[in-house]
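quick one before i forget lol
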Amino acid sequence: MARKRKIEGQVKQQKSIPVEVIAEDVTSHPLCLHGPTLLFSSEKGRFFSCSLCRKKQDCTVHIEEDDWKKENVRKLNEKYYNLIPKLDKAAAWKNFNEIKLKHATSRAYCDTCKELYIVAQSKKHLKDHKVIMSLTDEQLANPTTWMPPLENDQREAQYLFSKKAVSTVLGILKNNNISNILCVGTPSIHEAAQAHSDFDSLLLDYDTRHHLFNPPNKFLWYNMFNDYLFNGNEDEKILKKFFKSSKDKGLCIVIDPPFGGRVEPLVQTIKDLSAAYRKVCEGEGLLPVIWAFPYFSEPYIRNIAPEIKMHDYQVEYQNHKKFQKGGRKVGSPVRFFTNLPFNTIDLSNDSNYKQCDKCKYWVSVSNAHCNKCKECTSKDGTTYKHCNSCRRCVKPTYEHCKTCGRCCHVKHECGTVVESQSCYKCNEKGHKQSQCPQVEEKVQKKKKRKNA
């Protein structure tokens, strides 16, 4: 959330410049070490930049759109074709099988070197290296249960679903007669599916460590923000083969991006994967999707992909203190966004949820049905209240301010507009969606139709 700052003395207020991602085919874009860049647009102009890194020091590629038309700039960028690494998955799988033949006490993994090895055959791992010894068969089959997670929140935050969340996902898929899962950034779902006779899965993840524990046809090194397969044609063939095997079994994308990720490229990736599947198996529209993302991203997702709706299920993570049971007073802020029917999400075994007789699906026990809004309106885990002036339900901590003409937090400065906030409807600053002229125009048109 953006902060309001007071201007003191000669200190100037720094305004955040809104940046838009242009969702389009990226195959003709400049490259960086993370695959094709994305095209961004701001008040200063349009430019290509890394799809994965938000900090310039993490990835320095930044090319103005007009400069990309210059031949010398294109030639300079060609170096990335050779700089982008590839994985030798066959060698890694051969190594895995050799290690698995050894006794558990002879198996080790060095997270510093990202290497799975036989203890007697390697002495290069120093005392200050992060080494995990004596790996059991169970641990080799489920590396997410012990492997240190990647924790760079800017690009690869790796929070893993709790066992309850994993079980909920598999239950939803079973209720929808879906057997195959495209696990995009969800290794815990992949491991559970591989151990379950009713499911098959393919893991697409940026974390290259997974290729040390998976067969070559079960892991693809992947960037979900630009739909890029690092191993190129080799992995494209594996993906197409998995699509073919899913034709009669049903396929769902289960995706869990870093929470700070932009919605636009993620929706584009879901569309691209769906289009790739439809090319192989025919059909139209988006594939079934279960997308874990914070509830406050709902307006962005709803505007870009209205068919993907937010369910009230609170997604818990095993390695995030605040996003698990007892972490926050109102529970985890992460929800499942899906285009699957809500009535197939059965939470009858969880006492934290109730079935709404009017909505006909399960919601949090704190979520009250509003007869005026005709839905269970809570977004954040609290019980919302209806404001007749705003004609919608709002947070319990909000009160209607006559000066501002909207519901705000009790402690607020009238007339203050946070610089980073803009309307979800028209993207203009200075008002929210509820006060958008476009929304008001629609309301007036409806009134005219009723009176006619």
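fyi Residues 1-14 have pLDDT under 50 and may be disordered.
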